[in-house]
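Hi everyone,

Forwarding the result from last night's run.
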Amino acid sequence: MAVRPQSIKVRVAEVVPVTPLVKRFRFVPLAGGLLPAFSGGAHTVVEMHDGAVVRRNPYSLMGSPDELDSYQISVRKVEDSRGGSVFMHERVKAGDEMAVSPPVNLFAIAWDARKHLLLAGGIGITPFVSQMIQLDRSEMPFELHYCIRNDDRGPYWRDLQQRYGRRVQVHRAESGLGMDVEALLVMQPLGTHLFVCGPGPMIEGVYATARGLGWPEENLHSERFQAPATGAAFDVVLRRSSKRVHVGTHESLLEAIEAADVEAPYLCRGGACGQCETGVLACDGRLIHNDHYLSAEERAAGRKIMPCVSRFEGRELVLDL
């Protein structure tokens, strides 16, 4: 079982409003020197201490992988979320001390690809910023298609078009000029790898179209950082730790386990990577699987759960932790 990554202490060097709903944050190492290296598509987990509650949310690293004196992330404010994005927007200011995890890359560039086709929706643009820097410097062919609601709600599209020219195409949903995914996929040369990041329905639609056109699974890549769902509070028994843990309405199972000082593995904290997969020893109730990792058969068997996003309804849940 993997151990939780060691936190890196940082200072907030800059907070920049990008759109009415998006802010960019730049972190520098509190101890000076350089931060750990990362590659295009990597993310870091930001710790937010909100009173007695500690939230850990993943955000894509947006800076150049060659510049390790700071990390940059962007956060879209979501009012009806569990509070992490609101905390970042309303509570975090330049000069604050925070902690982040070492970088993890679950959305890495496919260096053997003939071409990279990048499809982004909304704040899903963030992992592609660092990817395009690396692809451009490596002289690898790529094109980005970026779907935004309108010019005012789409972060970074002007900067990206200025830097990469015709390799960046913007599709504006409110103007009726949405993205024709099938047309894009049909015209790609063999050996193209497809990368998509954005809202869940967008990712699922792109994947369905690609599979329908015969794209091989190994050429399909996606990233989504799904926030843990809220729900009714419940208790869980951690058998190996001999602890009973209460999981609050706005708290994830993983966060409750961490608050109980029990080490639990994670990488993405968004239900996609499988790192936090935990064995279910007993379940008198219903597992609410919110992940994108377990198969339908594994869910039906009820022997595994992803604590980062999934929940439970019932009398008792016993985990192998």
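The domain at 234-319 is CATH 3.10.20.30 (Ubiquitin-like (UB roll)).

Cheers,
N.
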